[in-house]
Amino acid sequence: MIDGIKIEDLFLKDVKRSIDGVIKVDKNDDLSIYTELDEYVVTKESREHFDKFFTRYLNATQEPTDKIGVWVSGFFGSGKSHFIKILSYLMENRTINGKKSLDFFREKIEDPLIFDNIEKSVNYGTKDVILFNIDSKASTVDRDNELIVNVMMRAFNEKRGYYGDVFWIAEMEEDLDNKGLFSSFKEEFLKINGEPWENRRSSYAFEYDDVVDALVNCGYQSRDACEKLFDNDGAAYHFDVEKFAEKLKKYCDSKGDDHQVIFLIDEIGQYIGENSELMLNLQTIVEELGTKLLGKAWVIVTSQADIDLITQEKVKGYDFSKIQGRFDTRLSLSSANVDEVIKRRILAKKEDYKDTLSVYFDEKQTILKNLLSFSNGTAQMKLYSGSDDFTNVYPFVPYQFIILQKVFDQIRQTGYTGKHLAKGERSLLNAFKEATEKYCTDGIGILVPFSSFYSTVENFLDPIIKRTIKQAEENDVLNNEDCDLLKILFMIRHVSDVQPNLENLVALSVSSVDEDKLELKKRVAESLKKLEGQTLINKSGDSYSFLTNEEQEINREIKNLDIDRHLVLDDIFKVVFDSNDICPKNSKYVFNKVLDDKIKPVNNADITVKFLTPLSDELTRGSGQRTLHGDNLSNIDSTDTLLFIFPEKSEFVDMVRKYLKINKYLTQNSSKSNNEILHRILLDKTQEMEKLKDSAAKSIYEGASEARIFIHGKEVTSIGNKNPKDRVKEGLVILFENVFSKEGYVTRDFDPDTDVLRVLRSDDLEKFGFGKSEVNKRALKEILDYVEIRTEKNDNVVLKEVKNRFSGKPYGWKDMTISGLVATLFAAEDIKLRYQKTILQGDSEEIARYLTRKDDAERVILEIRKPAGMETINNVKSVLRDVFDKTAIPEKEKDLFDRCHEILNDEMRSIDKIAGKYAEEKRYPGEKDILAYEHLLKNLLSITDPSQFLGMISDDKDTLTELKENVSPVMRFFGSPQVDIFRKAARKIDPFKRNEQFLGWSSFSHQGQ
């Protein structure tokens, strides 16, 4: 039934006919345009895009809007350029060979409502349609940095017939045009110069005299003004987005109410690249045009990436939601769109052969499923969904559409192509057409192998790739199959969906429905050996990778580099201890970190976490340290240590050494990056290095999951093979229990420093270990015993020493907890605190700061509090009661100290006021008693230790009583009106004393006797 039928017989259209696989926006001859319109395939997806665009466009003609931005996205080769070019044809509705652009779509758009919207949009008003590739239109002088608004202005000027490259010249032409002088000027210039103005304006600087004469002759300006204009050469000319919008508005207004200017800009995403300023410039353009022209100007752009992605990746730090909002209409072309175009333009079958192919598939579908299967772990590869799918796709396989699309994209991204491919000289349509032509004379049963697509991109590859494959084809050791396999390996080199292993390479090499898969597998395996033997490919595990000649040489140089052992350990150390994947960073335990002989000590650490790698000479492989019964099997000292011994078979050491060699090579050969070819290889090596880093980290992780564990000198098997971080955490708990045997004395930790303050403020004291509470009972006793022992030896007990002691073995208490325990002993009056020479008391917040701040730990001293005896307490209470007439006297020593201090301070303030009176009048009574009382009070108040203070009051009880009795009448005197009477009398007696000698007081007295 299929005998004698050739592949070319199956197709509805001649597969060898001329087709522009790539649509170029600047190709606009009538034949090309007619072919593009005639053969354009309106897919289900593109029909939806036409509907969306023209619906919004038509609405904008009825109701003015500022939403005039359209973003068309899709991968390279998805048909973006073709789509906007078709849009431009429709909007312009030009006549080609007697047929309007719109007429081509009467049959292509079956939905009458969609076509009606398109027709109304096309027939609305008048339009200037400006289509261009921005990379081609940008200035050759400043292509990488020219603002988009400048490129658009250049295109707008050229559309109107003005000079695009020099804006002030274009402005002069526009002004001439507005004044009706442009034609006259050009006629005058032609008379004077002999050539048209359009031919010479690019060299206007060399035609100075002729231009000025022509301007003067046509009546534009005076000669002086014209000469000054050209002498300035646009120095005063200013152009920005606002001016651009104003020019467009003025132009549209001059053309009538219904005139529009539509910009269609191809490859805007590629032009913007990494330059966020260009993206923001585009936003400003669309914003200004939308606001000022309200639907009379449209901006339609294409980009490989969707606007959401491009703004988030390249406009970081900006409000990219605002940028995205400027492009309210977004059209995304997917691979399904391209697949459908290829199937309908190239692979569409004649009706006569559809049934034939359907029957053939039914017979072969089981064979095909087995023949085209990929290895486990490969991304799902699409096979024939049924006989209809087979008919539509044959002689290709569905997954080839997806893989080839990714091949094109990856080749572009990795830079293995010249700028042709990057600019648009690429097409999946071309690839499938050319591959079909190769097999068009074969009979039904053939399947196009993936290697056939290589020739499509070959012309765009840099010599570095073509030379390697060309040399392989000329190598007598290799045959055609070997070379085809090499081409496949090159194409899928950077396609992550297809792992380049034997199974997958076999599937990609299938060339016939009746292929013997086992025999093909043998041939592919043999080809791989030959290619590896010729150093054309590299094998890593079960995967193979393509190597260019330059890469082969670089690989040899890298292999011969030496890497110091300590550098390998440094990188392994970072993964183990710094990544937070194996050893937890935020552990409550403080520990030293050791990897083989690399040690990183940590302050105040009494325990160690140690890893031994296959590089270590410390361990005799195969032995441990002790058996579970305690028998010593190794001389490794792991006291106070959590020890992990990596499996001997671990591969990460070689991986780390390999990527360090690559890094060393890249560092030493950075200057080679100036060479474009070597630059791409070095980029590949950089990627390879990063992959090796990831693989090494994964291998270290897996090794830590399987490592043998020894804790405090004994092997532990209770911690199973699981997440390494969990293993370390469990190991630390066990180690801590062994090393810090008194850690459990703390039954309640003090976490925030506010806990310390709460204790000092006597807030819920039993919760923290007061009285009969069992909370922290043993921990409090440990600290108190330590202070007592040191005090008995007459040693100063500094807080820092206390913290060092109780944070280390065998305690392991937290720093804040130790502060809290000291605060508890202080609040319970078991100890007293001194800051240098000052006894701490009273201000709870201040004491809390001294106890919790590291800087003060060396200055705070702990002392055992020796409580005052009952006799002293009773004496003090009697003084308060009898001498100062106080009641409600406290019982506790600290409270009694505070009360006494308060009373004596009040007394001192009163005495100070009285003492100051004697400076005014020396004859006031009681000065001697006041001074004596003041002296005693000062001595008492200078004592900050509560016990000593109360003892002094008790000892000086009688003196204090006597002095208080002596000053009481004096204090009453100064608190009464008598002090004023005394002062007045004293002032009157002074004049009397001065006149006493004149009165003869002595003789007077004698006579009286």
Describe this protein's structure.
The chain has 1009 residues and is an alpha/beta fold. The protein contains 44 helices and 19 strands. The strands form five sheets. It has a six-stranded mixed beta sheet. A hairpin with a 2-residue loop joins β2 (95-96) and β3 (99-100). The longest helix has 31 residues, at 676-706. Mean pLDDT is 85; it is low at 418-426, 620-634 and 1003-1009.
Quick description:
With 1009 residues, the chain is an alpha/beta fold.
Please tell me how large the radius of gyration is: 48 Å
Count of DSSP E strands? 19
What profile does the largest beta sheet have?
Answer: 6 strands, mixed
Quickly give the structural class.
alpha/beta
What fraction, in percent, of the residue positions are helical? 40-55%
Reading side by side through the largest sheet, how are the strands ordered? 11-10-12-13-14-15
Overall morphology: flat
| Termini Cα gap | 177 Å
Strand content bin: 5-15%
Per DSSP, the total helix count is: 44
pLDDT averaged residue by residue = 85
Give the secondary structure arrangement, pairings included.
Layout: H1 30-39, H2 44-62, E1 69-74, H3 80-92, E2 95-96, E3 99-100, H4 112-123, E4 126-133, H5 134-137, H6 148-159, H7 167-178, H8 182-193, H9 197-200, H10 208-217, H11 223-232, H12 241-255, E5 259-266, H13 268-272, H14 276-293, E6 297-303, H15 307-314, H16 320-326, E7 329-333, H17 335-345, H18 351-371, H19 387-393, H20 398-414, H21 419-423, H22 428-438, H23 454-458, H24 463-473, H25 480-491, H26 502-509, H27 517-533, E8 537-540, E9 543-546, H28 549-559, H29 565-578, E10 591-595, E11 598-600, E12 607-612, E13 641-645, H30 652-668, H31 676-706, E14 708-711, E15 714-716, H32 724-739, H33 753-760, H34 777-792, E16 797-798, H35 799-807, H36 815-827, E17 831-835, E18 838-839, H37 844-852, E19 860-864, H38 870-883, H39 893-917, H40 927-941, H41 946-955, H42 957-974, H43 978-995, H44 1001-1008
Parallel strand pairs: 1-6, 1-7, 4-5, 5-6, 10-12, 12-13
Antiparallel strand pairs: 2-3, 8-9, 10-11, 13-14, 14-15, 16-19, 17-18, 17-19
Helix pairs in contact: 2-4, 8-10, 10-11, 12-14, 14-16, 15-16, 18-19, 25-27, 26-27, 29-30, 30-31, 33-36, 33-37, 34-36, 38-41, 38-42, 39-40, 39-41, 40-42
